[in-house]
Design a protein that fits this description.
mainly alpha; 11 helices; about 220 residues; Tetracycline Repressor, domain 2
Length: about 220
């Protein structure tokens, strides 16, 4: 026991996330236990529990970290502050999928492992909340600038639409074989512009019908 304590090291949250992703790719399976995982990487098991309750919470956090990194990178660009909601959404998706591409092997492993049930993938629960919150904030900012109530967009419907849009783009990116995933960039541009055009040019009652459809699709 004394030797194990002596050899152990302090690790950060990001260290553990990186170790986990590398383990999955090298072994093509998830670690069997936190104890064994910590021992392999020479840190105390207690260090793991400072950040995560179990491997499920770690897997959730990987996707939330992807979101956090994309959002922070986007906001570091001072020009983004002056963008409208459409341009901010485009910038976010471009940045987010660049991060996914940098971690493509791990992401594909997760998606392939859950191919039949991607829409309800538990690991994406936190990411779903983050994307919906981000979309809601964009629409709220737009609505604050609109003088008449009938011109305002429904935040709940739009946020659900943004999540469904993300799932579509994730599947598209997964199957994209074009150089530098250039077709995914085109899909991002077209899908974001389409959903904004729908909300800008569609009568309100049809938007509500669209929202009901998205709700049913999300709850399946």
């Amino acid at each position: 026991m004394a030797n194990q304590v002596k050899k152990s090291k302090s690790v950060s949250k990001m260290d553990i996330l990186t170790y986990y992703m590398e383990y999955v790719l090298e072994h093509e399976e998830t670690p069997k236990s936190v104890y064994k995982f910590a021992k392999i990487h020479k840190f105390k098991e207690a260090e793991f529990y400072k950040f995560f309750g179990n491997f499920d919470s770690l897997r959730h956090n990987i996707w939330e970290t992807f979101f956090k990194n994309a959002h922070e990178l986007m906001m570091q660009n001072e020009e983004v502050q002056s963008y409208g909601s459409r341009e901010k959404m485009l910038t976010f998706f471009y940045t987010f999928f660049e991060i996914l591409t940098a971690n493509r092997s791990y992401v594909l492993y997760v998606l392939d492992e859950n191919e039949q049930n991607m829409k309800n993938l538990k690991q994406l629960k936190g990411l779903r909340s983050n994307i919906k919150s981000f979309a809601t904030d964009l629409i709220e900012d737009d609505n604050d600038e609109k003088q008449y109530g009938f011109l305002k967009r429904n935040e709940k419907i739009y946020s659900e639409g943004a999540w469904i849009q993300f799932l579509f783009l994730l599947k598209f990116w997964k199957e994209d074989s074009s150089p530098d995933f250039e077709k995914t960039d085109i899909a991002i541009e077209k899908s974001v512009n389409t959903i904004f055009d729908v909300f800008d040019n569609t009568p309100l009652e049809k938007v509500f019908d669209f929202g009901k459809f998205l709700y049913k699709e999300t709850m399946k």
